[in-house]
Amino acid sequence: MLKMDLHIHSTMSDGQANYAQIIEIAQRQRMDVIAITDHLDPNDPTRGYWPWRNTPILNHLEELRRLAAGKQVRVLVGVETCINDAGELPISPELYRNLDLVICSAHYLPTGAPAPVRGDLYNQDYWDAYMQQVLRITNNPQVTVAGHVFGYLPFKELLDHPTTFDERQELSRTIVKRCFTSQFEDELIHHLVTNNICYEIHGPSESTSPAFLQKCLSAGVRFTIGSDAHAVEAICNVEKIYQLANRCGITEQNLWGIKEGALV
User: Fold this and answer.
1) Does residue 195 come out as left (phi exceeding 0), alpha (psi in the -120 to 50 range) or beta?
2) How far apart are the C-alpha atoms of 33 and 263, rounded to whole Å?
3) 127 or 208, which is more confident
4) 3-class SS at 8?
């Protein structure tokens, strides 16, 4: 199967490796295609806004394409962002035209959503608002990929004690089981198909159930594989994701960008 990692962060936002280092790692890992997708969201209250070193963003994209030219691995240019309260991407038309893909992730809830309460991890109203935010994201046809829908959930402000990375992933899985609905899953799949948006099989959170992936597959949803790498050692670390995809019957033809057996 085509080897892809379409969710990698560089030093332009909160990643540890620069463009050249990421491309070198991808070539060593014999990847077919990667995407560097740095955070770009001036509205994000938790992550801050990286102005990409105060240089016009298009200059950075041009530099990335220059570094990628002639390499064995195909390098796509993207961003990870979220929609604003109007349901729009906070991206200029010129920038959008110069991107290969846009990952949209619900890193935060819209204005007017229930305020987070420390210790109240399973507040149904809060998670109903999160599910509505995901549906708003997947109702925007400019979005290419719905990012980590069931993982990396925005509950930092709900926590009342320190947690490890593994504990947070387990909390995410528990929240999904207790608070997410089958109606949400059905509406999400409908939006993905209707608006031709891919579903990201997200590696580090290990958050997507095989049953949901099979529902997506049956409905004709396309998928992307993403490590969501920030640390150097996580770049192109996608073996477990491919194992899950294989178990669910996902083939190369179900991946984004594949047409008639070739990457387009």
Assistant:
1) alpha
2) 9
3) 127
4) strand
- Amino acid at residue number 65: R
Question: Distance between terminal CA atoms of the chain?
Answer: 15
DSSP secondary structure string, 47-85?
T----STTS-HHHHHHHHHHHHTT-SSEEEEEEEE---T
pLDDT at 260: 43
Considering only CA atoms, which of 260, 255, 257, 229 is closest in space to residue 242? Answer: 255
**Torsional sign, CA 157, 83, 37, 208:** positive
Distance (Å, rounded) from C-alpha 166 to C-alpha 184?
26
Q: Is this structure's pTM higher than 0.85? A: yes
In 3-state terms, what secondary structure has residue 263? Answer: strand
Mean pLDDT score, 10-22: 93
- Measured distance CA(217)–CA(244) in Å, rounded: 13
